[in-house]
Amino acid sequence: MSDKREVWLRGPVPEIPQLLQPVAHALLQAAEEVESAIASFNTIYLWDKPYGMASVGFHLQHLSGVLDRLFTYARGESLSTLQLKALQQEGTAPTPSATATELVTAFHEQVQRALKQLQETDEKRLTEHRAVGRQQLSSTVLGLLFHAAEHTQRHVGQLLVTVKVAGNQQA
């Protein structure tokens, strides 16, 4: 029997530093919610924009992309050319045959990379300065990691609404 409690109520995530447990919980909760939402979604509507809303495909790409970008900044790195190109292409099918399953798998893989980075993050370095974006805006390792968790949760909420609206629009 699977545990139906929210991830944060299931206890600590193994190997994640104590101060970063909320980040790990939020990312794992997001992964579960995405999986559940897409399981019943008619993926023929993956790139449709119901009532002018962003498409389900966009949301799935953005979830992966924003985690990648924010965790890159948390490592103290600049975005690569590939990351900038992916950002520009969010909302566009990566291939004509791209499926929701592929996009969900990409998100799950990004969550796993993020969890690995959390495992390797030294809590003593959480307050170190990090520059964000072309304007080199000021943040910290902790600020970026928590923003990644918060942004992911907020965007999953938007995805859930879009899935519901897309399903109702087609009914």
From TrEMBL:
Superkingdom of origin organism: Bacteria
A Pfam family per the record: DinB_2
Record-given protein name: DinB family protein
Segments forming domain DinB-like: 45-159
Listed SUPFAM superfamilies: DinB/YfiT-like putative metalloenzymes
InterPro entries: DinB-like (IPR024775), DinB/YfiT-like (IPR034660)
